[in-house]
Amino acid sequence: MADKNVSMRTPLSRVKGLGAAGHGVEHWWVQRLTAVANVPLLIAFVIIVAALAGSNYARALAIVSHPLIAIILLLAVISVVNHMRLGMQVIIEDYVQDNGWRIVAVVANNFYTAVIGAACVFAILKVSLGRILL
Amino acid sequence: MSEAKSTPRPLSPHLQIYRWTWTMAMSVFHRATGTALYFGIALFAIWLVALAAGPRVFNAVQWFFGSPLGLLILFGYTWVLMHHMLGGIRHFIWDLGYGMEREQRIGMARFTLIASVALTLAIWVVAFTFF
Ligand code: HEM
Ligand code: HEM
């Protein structure tokens, strides 16, 4: 009884391992799911970027706005943005000890990844839909 | 009712106590490359937004990526991406319960470094030869 660090959690809750917010397993699982999705998507991404190297505006526009390329890029952006958000949150939780700063960092992480995701999705949609509609 | 009690948490010595090993180095690399990719992806977002913005902005951004500094950044990003991808695949192997033996762990750690360099060089040779 010398241990003052008494937990409120039952042994069942401990073995279920969901963590205080109840999302521990989900976090781990979505990190893996997006990581698996990342493998083919980023291989495709590297090939697309290699094809884009040194392109002029017209050629770059033609490549990115192609429906198949646009869909691959959209999927890659969605998967990567979720993956990197979860990954950076783990890093923040490992290293940022102060409660206040940890919350600031986690919020900043969410904002940063949301901005990156929205900017990429908007730009891809603009050029690819522009090709059809304009 | 079950009794709720917590076990005292174990303490471990700090990082600099340990001798560097392949597995430790590649573990660090996975985290470092994940972080580099995290910030580097902003460059891709800028490139895409520039493409959506029109030829004038696009040409400026494309000029930067074609400059020696831009090419160096892209080359670095390719390597970091390949290293992180292979490191991630190594994690999948562990998640499935394989590759935990000492020799396998060290072998896979060496493989991530060597293969990531090889893949990066191959990608750039192909990109420069065919595009
Ligand atoms: C190429 C395919 C990719 C694969 C297979 C992959 C795989 C993984 C895996 C399995 C983890 C978890 C590692 C762990 O539990 O310790 C991870 C962590 C992470 N990934 Fe990825 N990833 C990929 C691409 C990316 C990209 C493109 C980014 C960023 C733009 C990224 C950012 C991160 C970050 C920030 C972490 C957290 C690192 C850590 O906790 O140490 N990953 N990745
Ligand atoms: C450059 C050295 C680094 C090493 C050895 C390293 C290795 C790693 C890896 C791969 C993880 C993820 C483990 C997991 O999947 O759960 C991790 C988490 C951690 N790292 Fe690092 N990372 C680097 C930077 C640092 C630094 C600079 C520190 C401390 C100053 C540090 C201390 C820790 C701690 C305490 C954790 C959390 C432990 C855990 O997740 O179980 N790391 N480190």
Task: Give a nutshell description of this structure.
Chain A has 134 residues and is an all-alpha fold. Chain A has helices at 11-16, 24-52, 57-65, 67-95, 99-133. Chain A has a single domain (25-133), classed as 3 helical TM bundles of succinate and fumarate reductases (Up-down Bundle), CATH 1.20.1300.
Structure characterization notes:
The complex is a heterodimer of chains A (134) and B (131). Chain A has 134 residues and is an all-alpha fold. Chain A has a single domain (25-133), classed as 3 helical TM bundles of succinate and fumarate reductases. Chain A is built from five helices and no strands. Chain A has helices spanning 11-16, 24-52, 57-65, 67-95, 99-133. In chain A, helix 2 packs across helix 4 (67-95) and helix 4 packs antiparallel against helix 5. Chain A starts with 10 loop residues before the first helix and ends with a helix. The model of chain A has no long low-confidence stretch (mean pLDDT 90). In chain B, helix 2 (55-66) crosses helix 3 (68-95). Helix content of chain B is 77%, strand content 0%. The termini of chain B are far apart. Chain B is mainly alpha-helical and 131 residues long. Chain B has a domain at 22-40 and 68-130: Up-down Bundle (3 helical TM bundles of succinate and fumarate reductases), CATH 1.20.1300. The longest helix of chain B is centred in the first third of the chain and has 32 residues, at 22-53. Chain B has four helices and no strands. The structure holds protoporphyrin IX containing FE (2 copies). One protoporphyrin IX containing FE binds at residues 15, 24, 27-28, 30-31 of chain B.
